[in-house]
Amino acid sequence: MSAIVVIGAGQAGASLVAKLRALGHDGPLVLIGDEPVPPYQRPPLSKKYLLGETGAERLFLRPESFYAEQKITLKLGRAVREIDPRARRLFLGDEVLAYDQLVLATGAIARRLPAAIGGTLPGVHCLRNIADVDAMAGDFAQARRVLIIGGGYVGLEAAAVAAQRGLAVTLIEAAPRILQRVACAQTADCFRALHRTHGVDIREGVSLLRLNGTVRGARSELLAELSDGSALKADLVIAGIGVDPDTRLAEAAGITVENGIATDAFGATSQPGIWAAGDCASFPHRGGRLRLESVQNAIDQAECVAENLLGAARPYRPSPWFWSDQYDIKLQIAGLSTGYREVIARGQGGGPRSHWYFDGEDLLAVDAINDPRSFMTARRALQAGLRVNRAAISDPTVDLREALLAPG
Questions:
Q1: Please, is 243 exposed, middle or buried when counting C-beta atoms within 10 Å of its C-beta (0-12, 13-18, 19+)?
Q2: Is the pTM for the entire model greater than 0.85?
Q3: Beta partners for 362?
């Protein structure tokens, strides 16, 4: 019986071990996580969990009893310090574990503000895991003024939660506009306007120079010096400045790293017997390499690797989709907009609207804003390789079903 060990008890690791058992693997199966809790959902951390509307147990992907019932050995609160690929063993503290196949599902690490500019001062936090939010809870409950650094989805979601709590919120983004890396200007315009109607002060093209802080009683008082020459006071600073793939174990083990742990189309790394999946892994895509940070990718890629561990030899073909909830707005994204040349808008004003990304005649992605019909239509078109009638897309009086054409 093949012994399989998975390092990383996040969405990818949890999906992988569950899939292995569902496919009939009955050999030893170990799931290792450096956090002291079972695998859990991360998206609610910046929303319901931060607001105190749900407890940690409600975030768990499966009850802890599931792992015992499936004979999956959980090793939680444990960090792997070294992998020996030649001997096919790893070192977990003083414990040595042998494996036949190893999967790295180590996820990503939040970027933190440098200590040199005040990143380690009391009252400065980031949002990546339960421990981060728990550490923030006291400051968040007492804060009146919040500075959020980073205008990506994590920063905007945190801004929405803080504004709904009645806090004075300032968000700064070093790039010329919010969502610059991940969305078109039209989508950014929608969310900028949304946040400003809720009182959020959004400053674009502005970066943090340094933080100075003092502690008065139980509350931190922070002074942020900004690149535009201004300064502002805050009780709480939240950094949402992105993540980096966790490749530390892979690099130390001599595994090829290229925008994450490099895998082939099946999920295998450069070291025999070692695979990778989830936020930490990059895979071949359209002549280059792609790494995706999303729940759906973590699940789909992990399940594909599980099949390949058991001999399926199925190449991974992503069908990415994402979402973001802010106030009463649900953004659903189908596809990847990288390389787009044109954006066609459908709908306007306060109703459902969507932005369709094209490269020539090829549909690449859609941002659907309170518009589930556009989202589902786009997913169908992208998965089936259907062409889209662009004139029909831009006319909201035309039924979306009439916009889909047979493949060219």
A1: middle
A2: yes
A3: 359
